[in-house]
Amino acid sequence: MWHLLRMTLRKPRISDASSIAAISLEVWIGTYLKRGVNSFFADFALAEFTVPRTEAFLRDPREFLLVSENEEGIDGFIRLSSGRKAPVPGCSDTEITTLYVQPRHHGKGVGKSLLKAAFQHCRDNDVSSVWLATNAENAAAIGFYRARGFVQVGETHFSIQDQNYLNNVYSRQLD
């Protein structure tokens, strides 16, 4: 366990699945649905961010997760997925699949701490680089990752049914 100011980073338990699913739903909707919620996006989010789906990746040995927990509960998490083929050449097979922090906890070091701990996990397991994709219009996330040494290495698309959304692909070497 890593202890920080008023937060603890720890590996999640299966009993954390509902909290992780709720944070995922909150962050995804808050980030991408700026002008209102319609059934197309609501149906996707409610099908994607479920307790059973979360429990499945918590049990998957190819997934590494850490949660940030304050005195009230979980306020963020990071998920690394190994064995993931990047959408552009030259990347490792380790993806930062998700880094979500509740918006009211932005700027408190939660995301930085989760990312730093995930980097250490990678180093401990001889992973020399990681990659991720983020929406090309998500300026806050892009700024966060660039400030932490990520470099854009290409583009891909995130798809919901027949709709495609431009994503930037970033990679970072770990020292």
From TrEMBL:
A GO term, aspect molecular function: acyltransferase activity, transferring groups other than amino-acyl groups
GO cellular component, one term: ribosome
UniProt domain N-acetyltransferase: residue ranges: 7-175
Keywords noted in UniProt: Ribonucleoprotein, Ribosomal protein
Gene3D superfamilies referenced in this protein's UniProt entry, alphabetically: 3.40.630.30
SUPFAM superfamilies xref list: Acyl-CoA N-acyltransferases (Nat)
Keyword Ribonucleoprotein: yes
PANTHER family, sorted: L-2,4-DIAMINOBUTYRIC ACID ACETYLTRANSFERASE, N-ACETYLTRANSFERASE
Identification of the protein by name: Ribosomal protein S18 acetylase RimI-like enzyme
Annotated organism of origin: Yoonia sediminilitoris
